[in-house]
Amino acid sequence: MRNRSLLILTTAVTAGALTLTACGSRGEDKGGSGNGDGGNVTVTIGLDAPLTGELSALGLGIKNSADLAVQTANKKSYVKGVTFKLESLDDQAQPSAGQQNATKLVADKDVLGVVGPLNSSVAESMQKVFDDAKLAQISPANTNPALTQGTNWSTGDKKRGYKSYFRTATTDAIQGPFAAQYVYNEAKKTKAFIIDDKKTYGAGLAGTFKGEFEKLGGKVVGTQHINPETKDFSAIATQVKSSGADVVYYGGEYPAGGPLSKQIKEAGAKVVVVGGDALFSAEYVKLAGAAAAEGDIATSVGAPIESLDSAKEFLANYKAGGYKEAYEAYGGYAYDSTWAIIEAVKKVVDGNSGKLPDDARAKVVEAVQGVSFDGVTGKVSFDEFGDTTNKQLTVYKVEGGKHAPVKSDTFGG
């Protein structure tokens, strides 16, 4: 995140609202409390993602995009009297770290919303912490349906567990079947070997693919689970070859997905490896090797951002921002998640005579539920479960060492 001076503010509670007074630059913070009117208030937006480790490419893309949204809001003085600050925490894709980060963000009273995490399993560990504190959480990447619709969602018994949790990414209730339909109807693959990493995201996604693939008439010729930490998948590669499969569906992430594809091809299996949005990264091709990855398929949330008129300003500003890392698969969604919090804060401030109320966190949660704006990825709003109403997906195929879009679709609620 770029170095920039920030106002450090002291607070005083008056007439049921927070009135704040500037007390100098960051390096001159004297602490204590003060009184006064007309000064800016700093609102912190928390961010949780894997900023180090094997999934850091995706996490840093999320962080940079959220940072760009915060900088844009401040540059435009989008919320009068409010300066936004981003507080980024690293969960290393570990649920325990995510829960610790959630507790830390809740303890900071300046935090009025949180963007993240990347992983559905991490989100599971954070939801109750945030919900108990009435702190809004918006993920740009979580796709497991149970996070918003409860564990019995697949039976039609949908129940929202946490009113503070939202997401801008489409769920696997749509993504898995979308992949199965493309694989069976258009790629003409009829015999699938299904593998998952036993994680919340991977196992859930593989399950929704399997159900739709069999419903369409496809045959599942084998299933297997892997430990993604081992990176030695030779035994499963041999199973895939002997199974007669013409497609492998992998529910998991690119750190294991790339090596898995490479080893399956090296074993002599004539298959296409298919997976979800966590395979949609240049890192997947690097790990598999361009030759092995050629023809592999990944579905991902949304339409290709480079093709969207709504994303032109984001793409230009991201480039001008000088970020070292790519925005990756979730950059546009991270920007929109951050902006949804900014819009909610604006609504709360505007509705309280230009000040933040004492119960700002709860009010922001209510405001997020009702946000509706034209974002980087299209229209941004949330349904009764906290899921995005913008349900788009795209199929990408590795061609010439890069993921190229081959089919996009939009789905109803």
What this model shows, in words?
The protein is α/β, with parallel strands linked by helices and 413 residues long. Helices cover 38% and strands 23% of the residues. Strands 9-8-10-11-12-16-17 form a seven-stranded mixed beta sheet, with helices on both faces. The model is unreliable at 1-38 (pLDDT under 50).
Structural class: alpha/beta
Q: What's the Cα radius of gyration?
A: 22 Å
Residues in helix, % = 25-40%
The largest beta-sheet arranges its strands as 9-8-10-11-12-16-17
Main sheet: strands, sense, barrel: 7 strands, mixed
* Gross geometry: elongated
Query: How many distinct helices?
Result: 13
% residues in beta strands = 15-25%
Order of helical and strand elements: EEEHEHEHEHEHEHEHEHEHHEHHEHEEEE
- Summed over residues and divided by their number, the pLDDT gives a mean of 91
Distance N to C terminus? 37 Å
Keywords:
413 residues; alpha/beta; seven-stranded mixed beta sheet; five-stranded parallel beta sheet; 38% helix; elongated
Q: What is the gist of this entry?
A:
With 413 residues, the chain is of the alpha/beta class.
What secondary-structure arrangement, pairings included, does this model have?
Elements: E1 9-14, E2 17-22, E3 41-49, H1 56-76, E4 82-90, H2 95-107, E5 111-115, H3 120-132, E6 137-139, H4 146-149, E7 165-167, H5 172-186, E8 191-196, H6 200-216, E9 219-225, H7 234-243, E10 247-251, H8 254-266, E11 272-275, H9 282-288, H10 290-293, E12 297-301, H11 312-320, H12 331-350, E13 356-357, H13 360-369, E14 373-375, E15 378-380, E16 391-399, E17 402-411
Parallel strand pairs: 3-4, 3-5, 5-6, 6-7, 8-9, 8-10, 10-11, 11-12
Antiparallel strand pairs: 1-2, 2-13, 12-16, 14-15, 16-17
